[in-house]
């Protein structure tokens, strides 16, 4: 077997013939949303492995401070992050990272999100405000994202236009309904994000 | 020096927390940290890591089990995130250790290409690959 002894960072494997030791090109997407909204369920529905959990550091910004002159307090927090993966072909592996969700904190996930193809913001229409932080984050970082309403038990309690209005997301942001437990539904929601990302990349 | 060695029952004060490893992460990394406020850009979490022949040949020479554990699971390509999860170590500790092992020629790191997130050919490959994934009833997406 031949191993790369000093691979150059950035030398991906796209054009190399896989020889068993050549790793796939890793790509990632981020699954965001409030606590308990179904992020890990979403990852688990399509991942080829049981979702794994790792500890990562993120910068948290205390939010919900009404006095705008108050400097938000930043601190580095260790959080548990769930993720899974899908081998799309021997040269391409998609990782799905669930952002750690907590209310009342704005999180800076740059470390996790840098280089992501896009984000899926999962929404529970009963607790819409839980996902504001995620929507704001992706908008601010200019990462292509879609909003997906998790239809618990196949029911959506609000009209999608009402959801768009309540979340105040731009018209170009795709909004979809999906079932976090169903592999085909998760696949289609991810495709909504990727097709939006592709359209965005083609315009550049 | 087994990380998973359970402490004596008297030491269990915090309930379901796993026992602290006997070797503290800061000892392994000699106090260095990755990510967070570090000035060095952190290695992407999806970076693929593979043990080299040199790494596999020197398996018995490592002073710390953690180094050997990393080499062992990297006989198959793994992401940094998977290594951290499987070895139950903090991602930023794995970043430092993996980079050390890379410097010593014992691991190969394949950092994802810059800009692949906005590369339309990469996006199209991911889209095509995902469409081929059947739903739970075995149906793939129409192209």
TrEMBL record, chain A:
MF-aspect GO terms: ATP binding; GTP binding; hydrolase activity
Short name of any one Pfam family annotated for the protein: ATP_bind_1
Family matches, as SUPFAM superfamilies: P-loop containing nucleoside triphosphate hydrolases
Region (Disordered): 1-22
Keyword GTP-binding on entry: yes
Superkingdom: Bacteria
Keywords on record: ATP-binding, GTP-binding, Hydrolase, Nucleotide-binding
UniProt name for this protein: ATP-binding protein
Organism: Streptomyces flaveus
Automatic annotation (TrEMBL), chain B:
InterPro entries xrefs: DUF742 (IPR007995)
Pfam families assigned: DUF742 (PF05331)
Protein name as catalogued: Multi-component regulatory system-4
Lineage, top ranks: Bacteria, Bacillati, Actinomycetota, Actinomycetes, Kitasatosporales
């Amino acid at each position: 077997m031949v191993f790369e002894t000093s691979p150059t960072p950035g030398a991906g494997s796209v054009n190399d013939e896989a020889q068993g030791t050549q790793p796939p090109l890793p790509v990632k997407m981020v699954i965001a949303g409030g606590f308990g909204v179904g992020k890990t369920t979403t990852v688990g529905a399509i991942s080829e492995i049981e979702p794994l959990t790792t500890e990562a550091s993120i910068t948290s910004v205390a939010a919900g401070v009404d006095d705008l002159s108050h400097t938000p307090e930043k601190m580095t927090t260790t959080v548990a992050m769930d993720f899974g993966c899908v081998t799309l072909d021997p040269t391409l592996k998609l990782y799905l990272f669930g952002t750690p969700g907590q209310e009342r904190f704005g999180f800076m996930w740059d470390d996790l999100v840098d280089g992501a193809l896009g984000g899926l913001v999962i929404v529970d229409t009963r607790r819409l405000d839980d996902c504001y932080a995620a929507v704001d984050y992706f908008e601010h970082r200019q990462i292509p994202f879609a909003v997906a309403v998790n239809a618990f038990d196949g029911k959506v309690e609000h009209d999608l236009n009402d959801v768009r209005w309540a979340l105040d997301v731009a018209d170009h942001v795709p909004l979809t309904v999906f079932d976090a437990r169903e592999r085909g539904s998760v696949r289609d929601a991810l495709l909504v994000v990727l097709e939006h990302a592709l359209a965005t990349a083609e315009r550049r | 020096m087994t990380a998973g060695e359970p402490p004596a029952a008297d030491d269990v004060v915090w309930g379901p927390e796993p026992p602290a490893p006997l070797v503290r992460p800061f000892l392994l990394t000699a106090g260095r940290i990755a990510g967070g406020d570090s000035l060095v850009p952190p290695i992407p979490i999806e970076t693929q890591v593979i043990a080299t022949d040199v790494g596999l040949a020197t398996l018995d020479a490592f002073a710390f089990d953690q180094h050997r554990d990393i080499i062992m699971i990297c006989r198959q390509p793994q992401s940094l995130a998977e290594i951290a999860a499987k070895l139950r170590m903090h991602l930023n500790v794995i970043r430092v250790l993996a980079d050390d092992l890379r410097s010593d020629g014992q691991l190969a790191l394949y950092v994802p290409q810059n800009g692949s997130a906005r590369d339309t050919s990469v996006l199209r490959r991911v889209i095509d690959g995902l469409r081929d994934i059947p739903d739970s009833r075995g149906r793939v997406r129409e192209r």
